[in-house]
């Protein structure tokens, strides 16, 4: 099972042999980029540049292009 968030292109949940691979903080807010999971940090990490924290891709819309039992594909909608 995999769960994907369209805002920020973030993989929120994935399981292997029934075990979850990612942690999601209870402080996460619905509709915003989650605290945890597998985020996309592009083109910078943290505040190591002049863009918003973790770059612009973390706050943009992404589209799921395919999903299978062991893989997902998504693309940035710009």
Describe the model.
This protein has 78 residues and is mainly beta. It has strands at 2-5, 10-16, 19-20, 62-67, 72-76. Strands 1-2-3 form a three-stranded antiparallel β-sheet, with no helix packed on it. Strands 4-5 form a two-stranded antiparallel sheet. The chain is globular, with a radius of gyration of 13 Å. The relative contact order is 0.23.
User: What's the mean pLDDT score?
Assistant: 84
Unreliable sequence segments:
none
Radius of gyration: 13 Å
Instruction: Provide a count of the helices.
Output: 0
What is the terminal-to-terminal distance? 28 Å
Structural class given helices, strands, pairing?
A: mainly beta
Number of strands: 5
Q: Major sheet: size, sense and barrel closure?
A: 3 strands, antiparallel
Shape: globular
Q: Per DSSP, what share of the residues sits in E-state strands of 2 or more residues?
A: 25-35%
Helix content: under 10%
Strand arrangement within the widest β-sheet reads 1-2-3
The sequence of SSEs as H and E is EEEEE
Which key phrases capture this entry?
single chain, 78 residues, mainly beta, 3-stranded antiparallel β-sheet, globular
Task: Please summarize what this structure is.
The chain has no helices and five strands. With 78 residues, it is mainly β.
Topology overview:
Elements (H helix, E strand, L loop, with lengths): L1 E4 L4 E7 L2 E2 L41 E6 L4 E5 L2
Antiparallel strand pairs: 1-2, 2-3, 4-5
């Amino acid at each position: 099972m995999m769960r994907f968030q369209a805002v920020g292109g973030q993989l929120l949940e994935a399981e292997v042999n029934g075990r979850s691979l990612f942690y999601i903080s209870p402080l996460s807010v619905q509709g915003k980029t989650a605290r945890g999971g597998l985020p996309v940090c592009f083109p910078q990490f943290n505040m190591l540049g002049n863009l918003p924290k973790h770059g612009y891709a973390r706050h943009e819309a992404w589209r799921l292009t395919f999903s299978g039992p062991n893989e997902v594909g998504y693309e940035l909608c710009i």
